[in-house]
Amino acid sequence: MDALAVGIFEGWEPEDFLLLFGGLLGLAFGALAQWSGFCFRAAVAETTRPGGDWPGGERPKLAQWIAATAVAIAATQAGIAHGLIDVSGTPYLQADFSLGGLVVGGLLFGVGMTFAGGCISRLTVLSVRGNLRSVFTLLVVSVVGYAAIRGMLAQGRAGFADGTRVPGSEAPSIPDLLATGLGLPVEAVALGLGAVALVLGLSLAFHESGRRVLPLVAGSAVGLLVAAGFAATTWVSAEAFDPVAVESLRFTQPSADSLMYAMISTGVAANFGIVLFAGVLAGAFLQAAATRSLRLEGFDNPAQMARAGLGGVAMGVGGVLALGCAVGQGLSGVATLAYPSMIALAAIWTGARIGFAWRAGIERRVAAAA
């Protein structure tokens, strides 16, 4: 078996493994998200309706997200403590960060996803199932996101981020801060925080799921994928000659880069994010096809299309300003226990609650005028 593996991978460079890992990670996440309906927007929506969406008051999507977060934190921190994961160079743990970008970007992203019908990861999954609304919105997000990263919106975005930057000399890591304050080894603190997050998170998720195990299994699997992404890219970064970014599940920049790659692939090299995005599309499509869930769905009216487009614009700009989406910052970033990621997640959550209230107000006015 070992000889066969050596023969198959003979001549491969670490960068080749990076693309393989990215594709497999995306494939697994796409199939899992399509099967379970994993979605941050749906999790927030369940908190806006007292009693939940199920007869017994269960909130399964919220339970999935809590379980995913708990397992992602525990597994990632365990990997850090044992030297398998190194997130010190990631954008989540930069000493100086844009507080304005995190807050304003998170609020924009949260409001946008309520109007768009899902966060970027959910739109990606739905688009290959035949949901033309998601295809349209995902294209808007990708175009606007790329414009904010490298296009005509980049200068304004960078100026705002720089103008609201919080200077610092140390990485904003909660384990590092606690280890310094308590005089303990950072590895011990990381393991301890991970264990606490796992126990409390899974207990809360079990309660929110109505004591059903399936949402916990789905969410926990997503959490493990987050840690696996960090571990794989850490290994490649240590083996590769050229610098390789340590990263995991994220969708704002990968969706934008994937659109550009699809148009000018001869001028853009494939990277981890691009193959991750392609893998998500493939995994979601295969799962939907296997369960006969493929069906075309479109907009009901022009107003619905306009709302989705505006939501896509807000998510594209907001995701770039906040340095990530609901998955990139709210799951992968939080797994590193970087407190800027927690600020971004709180802003996205708040923006989503504002968005749902805003939509409800619009619907009431439309009903009253009818």
Give a quick rundown of the structure.
71% of the residues lie in helices and 1% in strands.
Walk me through what this model shows.
With 370 residues, the chain is mainly alpha-helical. It has one domain. The chain is built from 16 helices and 2 strands. It has helices at 2-9, 14-36, 40-47, 60-81, 99-116, 120-127, 132-149, 154-163, 174-182, 186-208, 214-239, 252-263, 272-290, 302-321, 328-335, 339-369, and strands at 97-98, 165-166. It has a two-stranded antiparallel sheet. Helix 5 runs parallel beside helix 16 (339-369). The N and C termini lie far apart (70 Å). The model has no long low-confidence stretch (mean pLDDT 92).
Features:
globular, mainly alpha, 71% helix, 1% strand, single chain, two-stranded antiparallel ribbon, 370 residues, 16 helices
Main sheet specs: 2 strands, antiparallel
Secondary-structure element order, as H and E? HHHHEHHHHEHHHHHHHH
Q: What portion of the residues fall into strands of 2 or more residues? A: under 5%
Strand order of the largest sheet: 1-2
Tally of DSSP β-strands: 2
- Form type: globular
Poorly predicted segments: none
Average pLDDT rating: 92
For the CA atoms, what is the radius of gyration?
Answer: 20 Å
Number of domains: 1
Output the number of helix runs: 16
Structural class: mainly alpha
Q: Terminal Cα separation, in Å?
A: 70 Å
Helix fraction, binned, reads over 70%
